[in-house]
């Protein structure tokens, strides 16, 4: 075929599309997602919008684990269902895991990995660092992380004697190649480049030691390599995959499982790595099966056709929790679902229009009908149990009178500007603001959400045009800023500094990871100060101030905290027993994905 | 002979027309460059301009539409279906076809077989008891199956026979062995087969009744030929026309039905492939599948004609 | 007879896998059920349309009436979320909501009625286009034969060979998901099936004595077509029209299931799709089942009425 010559051209386009899915936290649109009660994106579908996991963010977003270090943290990862037995693990069995959607490729350096993609990656790759249940980073594949005085330089020593599945040795050079491949990728690179100098970002000290030179101080750098950006792939494979992107379907890492086969939109299979450096692996194999319809996914688990699944669908979560035989790991600490507003284009370049939209939003209805009492209402990107939570920040909404006032004010002054997203339409017609709501579909839940929102907006001064697009296009248009309002999912990284990439001025560009394209230098200052600080009290104050700023800017209309459920069948064991080589417990689940080396079936 | 040549000519013209229409629609209504390059297609940066030029050269996008069509067409007939624009790595379209076609084929074969197995005995039964109570019930039943929308039937069948009573498996798994996969396709096939079978049944019944009124049937009966023999040996064959014709025409109809059934039962077949491809504006995939389906349709209808000439000697001489 | 056309029984375009049949063998003679019935048990009793027809017609009348006058009739707002605090939707059918509500507490009776407006509009436009353009082209082809016939028949074949639903999806996805686009697309797909019937009927009539007579008397072609042929062709076309409406209505449902129906507002397909998840079928089956039943009854009524009309007029024919 004519692959070679246009490889780079294609790469940009499709990689762009794909990477976004990862990066974006957009709501997926599952085809045939007919689960009614679903958290917006929950539409399980190609969630490609697992934003938090977007590795692009240099800081790894791990919206997982408990809010770091809150002494009195309420449980936001509920593992109470998980069966713990003292019996010793047995070898054998194939774990069948139901995913929200399939992915286009499993290459951490160049693919856009959403939660399903990251889940599969967990089987075949190891990350440089990992998180404990308290949200502290610990070395994993790396042996140690040593910062310099101002945390702008990190020396990473890799463990000795580890090889990739294809025999290539794991060494510092391999890490460097991984880093450079990520940085060179048109999309993944967007999350790496802004945080490193152009020259000298990495230095090799010896065979097993590498130095990362950051652009600024970051106390939490190791956290950034506990997710996609920290997944180390075989450099031989990376190079080969750049030549032949079909190899993206056949990943090669150091992980507990080795890739065996993949049939797109059907099963992807990994088998035990008998030589895994981290110790014993009990399962014979894992099969990942994408099932976009959440109801069907539940049915399969309850029928015994699946052994595990991931879901964000509130109704499904409720049903699973009610089942005796199912072990549920409930994680609320992750993403939030919200409406996201493009502040760079009329009408929403004017804060009055933005506030009007927020005030006009039927938040209560949304939370009742979509959150179903299972996904909690959100006012900000932190859950109330988090130490960074700002109790004074309340999401404005359900106030049509105020909205109408603001709309009138806006239209009187700027009603004749052109809303470019809608073509040649003026921003106001007959005193109502015209705008486009875009989401990814086809998805029954997303459509329901659009209808619920429209019902409130249309009676409070707005004329809403619907635009349902296939996920790839949706993410693309959001990234290039060709939208007014979208329904989105984002935030919730284990350490909040990992979410900087979505907020900094420097990530605004032709393709912008700062999706709403709002640049606020003082906000940037807060973020950079917080990532350089080791002092808890300072950080808490800074992040609380951040939440207030975000609330005042009216660029996000927060709906709910997404609830992730990783559910396992009765006879699955060891789900939360993953340890670091140094014997520390690691977090059980994050952003809908779990790990597999400690899993086994009860005898 | 002349007739067959003419048929062939029409068939070829048909394929050309269908492909031209589809090609035109996709290229005029969609934006090929955006689909290949994404946001870069609008960029003015020098490095991006290179990519744009490369893409244009690769896909002949600077050529006028007819030229592009000819280039596509000449590649197509040699088996080069192009690459899938929207998939990472741009694998060849033929890979997708090879993977998905067998599943849809299996689904359709099972569906048509079931439909015929339902229709023929039912029609014979109804015709032999024409207008009696049993026949009236049968008429009502067939109307019911014809009237219920495809998707409605699929949803109900799935709910009843996969969920409420677990007779059938819930999803299709491409990694399973052959006969397991066949079993997984039985329920979706039934969603297609029931309405279609009812249509066949009605046609066949009608024609059987007409045939049964012919004189030679009366003659046979009066000679003492049993009712059963009359039905099978004398009445069935001449009554098959409408049935056979519809059978052929239904290829297109069944493919349409399979789009929806594949969606509802989550079967990764040709139907879901084309829906996805259209939504993503992946031209080569859409064109390839449309051509395959149309070609199949044409071939089947030619076979139907052949069958006609076998069934009815009068036709042979035409 | 065999000039490369697909001959045999008529089928209305089966966009969603349902085939409504007419009977039309290559020679243009009807072999409809009714004729068979007539032959089977005497010609007398089939002059009446039958009770079934009137029931079907009654149902259709109710649906049309409700759809047309919906905004003025006392139906609830189909988009409003009638949430009762303390009780989570969906609400089962009750005095306040006769058909119950969906998961967002929207009244299903209202949604079904307003959905009927879309479905019926799609059906009427589709069949209108079919009869207008298809009928015109079919009559021309059937009357003049020769070159006209070849070209027009070829156009018909193109549309008949193209898997109808694929064409519908193609156009809808590439253009826009509006009522206009969908109606016109389905209209386009109706032209060929209706046209074929028109052509076949015209052919069968064009040889009749009364046409010959008219020609001998010096009548011009146009006059013959309009005064002699058209009335006779209209009859089977009208019967087909009802069947075609049924198919169009179901096609809209099919498109909705693929996520391609009209963007805003309820349609039967969308309303059914909302309730079609396995969880809802178990816990709140009315959300999907009630609109399925309404759709089903309407399609049944259209099919049945169309069949009876054809039977009624066909018998007239054979008695001639």
User: Which term fits the overall shape of chain A?
Assistant: globular
Instruction: Report, as a whole number of angstroms, the end-to-end distance of chain A.
Output: 50 Å
Strand order of the largest sheet of chain A: 1-13-22-12-2-11-10-9
Please tally the β strands of chain A and state the result.
26
CATH topology of the largest domain in chain B: MetI-like fold
Residue runs with pLDDT of under 50 for 5 or more positions of chain B = none
Q: Report on the biggest sheet of chain A.
A: 8 strands, mixed
The succession of helices and strands of chain B, N to C, reads: HHHHHHHHHHHHHH
Number of helices of chain B: 14
Q: Gyration radius of chain A, to the nearest Å?
A: 23 Å
Domain count of chain B, please report it: 2
Give me the number of helical elements of chain A: 15
Rounded average pLDDT of chain B? 81
Percentage of residues in helical conformation of chain A? 25-40%
CATH homologous group name of the largest domain in chain B: MetI-like
Structural class of chain A: alpha+beta
Main beta sheet of chain B: strand number and arrangement? none
Task: Give a verbal description of the structure.
The complex is a heterotrimer of chains A (603), B (318) and C (320). In chain A, the strands form seven sheets. Chain A has an eight-stranded mixed β-sheet, with helices on both faces. In chain A, strands 14, 17, 18, 19, 20 and 21 form a six-stranded mixed β-sheet that branches. Chain A has a four-stranded antiparallel β-sheet with strand order 5-6-8-7, covered by helices on one side. Residues 1-75 of chain A have low confidence and may be disordered. In chain A, helix 1 (7-23) packs across helix 13. In chain A, helix 12 links the parallel strand 18 and strand 19 (462-470). By secondary structure, chain A is α+β, with helices and mostly antiparallel strands. In chain A, 27% of the residues lie in helices and 20% in strands. Chain A is globular. Chain A is built from 15 helices and 26 strands. Chain B has 14 helices and no strands. In chain B, helix 5 packs antiparallel against helix 6. The model of chain B has no long low-confidence stretch (mean pLDDT 81). With 318 residues, chain B is mostly helical. Chain B folds into two domains: 2-73, no CATH class; 103-317, MetI-like (MetI-like fold, Orthogonal Bundle), CATH 1.10.3720. The longest helix of chain C is centred in the middle third of the chain and has 37 residues, at 108-144. Chain C is mainly α. Chain C has helices spanning 33-41, 51-69, 108-144, 146-161, 164-174, 179-206, 209-216, 221-257, 268-274, 278-283, 286-319. Chains in contact: A-B, A-C, B-C.
């Amino acid at each position: 075929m004519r692959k070679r010559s246009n490889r780079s051209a294609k790469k940009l386009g499709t990689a762009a599309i794909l990477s976004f899915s990862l990066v974006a936290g957009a709501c997926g649109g599952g085809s045939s997602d007919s689960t009614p009660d679903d958290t917006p994106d929950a539409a399980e579908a190609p969630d490609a919008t697992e934003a938090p996991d977007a590795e692009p963010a240099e800081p790894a977003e791990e919206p997982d684990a408990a809010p770091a270090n809150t002494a009195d943290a309420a449980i936001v990862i509920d593992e109470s269902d998980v069966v713990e037995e003292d019996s010793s693990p047995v070898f054998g069995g194939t774990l069948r895991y139901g995913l929200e959607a399939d992915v286009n490729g499993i290459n951490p350096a160049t693919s856009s990995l959403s939660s399903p993609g990251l889940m599969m990656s967990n089987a075949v790759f190891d990350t440089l660092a990992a998180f404990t249940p308290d949200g502290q980073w610990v070395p994993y594949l790396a042996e140690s992380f040593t910062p310099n005085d101002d945390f702008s330089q990190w020396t990473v020593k890799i463990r000795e004697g580890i090889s990739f599945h294809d025999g290539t040795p794991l060494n510092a050079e391999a890490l460097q190649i991984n880093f450079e491949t990520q940085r060179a990728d048109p999309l993944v690179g967007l999350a790496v480049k802004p945080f490193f100098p152009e020259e000298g970002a990495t230095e090799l000290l010896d065979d097993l030691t590498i130095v990362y030179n950051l652009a600024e101080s970051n106390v939490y750098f190791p956290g950034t390599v506990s997710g996609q950006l920290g997944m180390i792939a075989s450099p031989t494979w990376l190079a080969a995959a750049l030549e032949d992107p079909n190899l993206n379907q056949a990943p090669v890492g150091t992980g507990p499982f080795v890739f065996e086969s993949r049939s797109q939109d059907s099963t992807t299979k990994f088998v035990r790595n008998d030589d895994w450096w981290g110790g014993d692996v009990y399962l014979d194999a894992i099969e990942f099966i994408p099932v976009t319809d959440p109801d069907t996914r539940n049915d399969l688990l309850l029928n015994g056709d699946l052994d595990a699944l991931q879901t964000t669908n509130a109704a499904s979560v409720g049903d699973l929790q009610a089942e005796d035989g199912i072990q549920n790991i409930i994680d609320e600490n992750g993403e939030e679902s919200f409406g996201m507003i493009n502040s760079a284009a009329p009408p929403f370049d004017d804060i009055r229009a933005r506030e009007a939209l927020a005030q006009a939003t039927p938040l209560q209805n949304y939370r009742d009908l979509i959150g179903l009492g299972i996904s909690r209402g959100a006012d900000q990107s932190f859950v109330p149990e988090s130490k960074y939570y700002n109790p004074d920040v309340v999401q404005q909404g359900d106030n049509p009178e105020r909205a109408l006032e603001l709309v009138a004010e806006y239209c009187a002054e700027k009603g004749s500007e052109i809303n470019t997203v809608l073509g040649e339409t003026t921003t106001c017609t007959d005193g109502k603001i015209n705008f486009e709501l875009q989401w990814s579909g086809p998805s029954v839940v997303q459509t329901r959400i659009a209808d619920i929102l429209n019902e409130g907006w249309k009676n409070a001064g707005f004329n809403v045009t619907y635009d349902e697009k296939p996920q790839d296009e949706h993410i693309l248009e959001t990234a290039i800023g060709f939208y007014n309002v979208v329904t989105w999912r984002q935030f919730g990284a284990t350490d909040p500094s990992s979410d900087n990439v979505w907020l900094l001025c420097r990530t605004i560009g032709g393709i912008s990871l700062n999706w709403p394209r709002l640049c606020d230098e003082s906000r940037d200052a807060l973020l950079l100060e917080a990532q350089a600080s080791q002092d808890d009290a300072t950080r808490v104050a800074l992040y609380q101030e951040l939440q207030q700023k975000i609330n005042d800017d009216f660029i996000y209309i927060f709906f709910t905290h997404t609830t992730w459920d990783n559910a396992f069948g009765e006879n699955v064991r060891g789900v939360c027993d993953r340890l670091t080589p140094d014997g520390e417990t690691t977090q059980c689940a994050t952003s809908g994905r779990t790990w597999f080396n400690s899993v086994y079936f009860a005898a | 002979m002349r007739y067959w040549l003419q048929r062939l000519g029409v068939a070829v013209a048909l394929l050309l027309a269908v492909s031209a229409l589809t090609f035109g629609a996709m290229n005029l209504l969609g934006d090929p460059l955006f689909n290949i390059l994404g946001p870069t297609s609008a960029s003015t940066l020098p490095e991006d301009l290179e990519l744009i030029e490369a893409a244009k050269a690769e896909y002949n996008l600077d050529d006028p539409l007819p030229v592009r069509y000819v280039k596509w067409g000449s590649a197509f007939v040699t088996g080069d279906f192009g690459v899938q624009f929207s998939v990472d790595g741009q694998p060849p379209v033929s890979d997708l076809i090879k993977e998905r076609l067998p599943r849809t084929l299996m689904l359709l074969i099972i569906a048509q077989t079931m439909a015929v197995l339902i229709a023929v005995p039912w029609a014979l039964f109804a015709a032999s008891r024409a207008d009696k109570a049993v026949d009236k019930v049968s008429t009502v039943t067939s109307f019911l199956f014809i009237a219920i929308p495809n998707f409605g039937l699929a949803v109900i069948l799935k709910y009843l026979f996969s969920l409420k009573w677990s007779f059938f498996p819930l999803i299709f798994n491409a990694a399973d062995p052959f006969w397991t996969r066949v079993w997984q396709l039985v329920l979706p096939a039934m969603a297609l087969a029931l309405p279609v079978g009812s249509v066949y049944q009605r046609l066949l019944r009608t024609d059987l009744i007409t045939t049964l009124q012919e004189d030679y049937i009366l003659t046979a009966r009066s000679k003492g030929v049993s009712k059963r023999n009359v039905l099978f040996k004398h009445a069935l064959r001449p009554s098959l026309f409408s049935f056979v014709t519809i059978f052929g025409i239904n290829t297109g109809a069944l493919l349409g039905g399979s789009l929806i059934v594949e969606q509802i039962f989550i079967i990764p077949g040709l139907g879901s492939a084309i829906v996805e491809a259209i939504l993503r504006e992946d031209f080569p995939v859409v064109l390839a599948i449309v051509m395959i389906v149309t070609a199949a349709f044409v071939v089947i209808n030619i076979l139907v004609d052949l069958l006609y000439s076998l069934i009815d000697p009068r036709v042979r001489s035409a | 007879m065999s000039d490369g056309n697909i001959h045999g029984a008529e089928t209305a375009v089966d966009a969603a896998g349902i085939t409504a049949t007419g009977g039309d063998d290559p020679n243009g003679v009807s072999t409809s059920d009714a004729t068979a019935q007539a032959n089977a048990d005497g010609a007398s009793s089939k002059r009446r349309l039958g009770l079934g027809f009137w029931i079907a017609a009654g149902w259709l009348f109710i649906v049309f009436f409700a759809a047309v006058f919906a905004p003025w009739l006392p139906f609830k707002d189909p988009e409003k979320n009638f949430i009762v605090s303390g009780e989570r939707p969906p609400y089962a059918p009750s005095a306040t909501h006769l058909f119950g509500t969906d998961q967002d507490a929207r009244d299903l009776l209202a949604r079904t009625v307003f959905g009927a407006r879309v479905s019926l509009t799609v059906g009427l436009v589709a069949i209108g286009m079919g009869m207008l353009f298809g009928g015109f082209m079919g009559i021309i082809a059937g009357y003049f034969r020769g070159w006209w016939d070849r070209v027009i028949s070829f156009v018909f074949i193109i549309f008949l060979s193209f898997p109808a639903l694929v064409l519908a999806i193609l156009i809808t996805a590439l253009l826009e998901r509006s009522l206009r686009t969908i109606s016109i697309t389905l209209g386009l797909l109706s032209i060929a099936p209706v046209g074929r019937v028109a052509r076949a009927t015209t052919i069968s009539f064009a040889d009749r004595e009364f046409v010959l007579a008219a020609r001998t008397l010096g009548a011009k072609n146009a006059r013959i077509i309009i005064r002699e042929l058209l009335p006779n062709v209209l009859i089977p076309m009208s019967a087909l029209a009802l069947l075609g409406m049924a198919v169009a209505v179901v096609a809209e449902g099919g498109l909705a299931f693929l996520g391609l129906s009209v963007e805003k507002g309820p349609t039967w397909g969308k309303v059914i799709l909302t309730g079609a998840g396995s969880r809802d079928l178990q816990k709140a089956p009315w959300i999907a089942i009630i609109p399925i039943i309404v759709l089903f009854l309407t399609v049944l009524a259209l099919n049945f009425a169309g069949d009876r009309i054809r039977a009624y007029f066909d018998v007239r024919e054979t008695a001639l």
